[in-house]
Amino acid sequence: MARKTKEDAERTRQQIIHAARLVFHECGVSRTSLEKIAKAAGVTRGAVYWHFADKADLFFAMREQVSLPLFSRLDDLLLAEGLTDPLDGIEQALNEFFHTLEERPEVRQIFEIMASRCEYVDEFATVQAEINKPALDFLGKVEIAYRRAQERGTLCDGLEPQTVALDTWAFACGLFHHLLTGDPDAAWRRQVPVMIAAHVALRRPDST
To answer: Is 0.85 surpassed by the pTM of this model?
Structure first.
């Protein structure tokens, strides 16, 4: 009986997170109340408060549901020990991220919520720094990958790992925001892997 109760509680928690994603995306975070989420989830407001301390807590739970497994996969690709050329890990990680963004609507919705449907004020004033951590962690790991490439001689001479890591990070951020706000049917979206390959190729010794 206890096991069934635990399973039911987790099922309710997931219902609430799912409803929060849909309502946050439709209405924006600031215009969404926990009452509205409870109604969309088919639960009481008390059930929402039983699982989550406040709206920010629910927001974080929604984000972590996709960001933790996604960034774990990116880390595995980016810093894989068996790579002959660490630049391949950078290319594979970027491709995995943007492929996931395009192919999984729920992931895209959550990133759209974080990027354009949340005002980081009031109870969310301290949230933005936490939201930015995965991107900054990714930047640090890209730099590690470039340093490995430099040590193995697969990074073009004269390129500083810290500088090219920042350039790759800026490239990825720009592409990310353009994909979220651009025409979803634009033909260029299918060229993202080619764009990523070209970006990484410029760092290879044979690029010249």
So the answer is: yes
